[in-house]
Write a structure and sequence with these properties.
The protein is α/β, with parallel strands linked by helices and about 100 residues long. About 45% of the residues lie in helices and about 15% in strands. The protein has 3 helices and 5 strands; from the N terminus they run H-H-E-H-E-E-E-E. The strands form 2 sheets. Strands 1-2-5 form a 3-stranded parallel beta sheet. A hairpin with a 4-residue loop joins strand 3 and strand 4. The model has no long low-confidence stretch (mean pLDDT about 75).
Length: about 100
Amino acid sequence: MKRITFPVAIFVGVAMCFSVLFYFSIIPTSALAESRPKVLLIPREGYSGDIGLMLIKEVGVMRRMLMFAGYKVEVATASGGTIVSPAMDLKSDMILAAVKKAS
């Protein structure tokens, strides 16, 4: 495997930094946030011995996949509180009763 020289490595690093800065300066973040469709995620509340497993392996995976697909994920629970487990906490964005249907 051929090693690249130090000046070439510096040039590539600087070029990557400028390309990232250029990309984020053209597309405002507020426009990106407004254009993303929203998805409502409703996890089950209550005590369970496997609540940590549910938050990590089920809810966490769904949230990441939806965010990577370009959706804004909002979490609603019946109480509007945080679901707490030893492994992970999930903060609710809203109370389920306050959710309005999009037109």
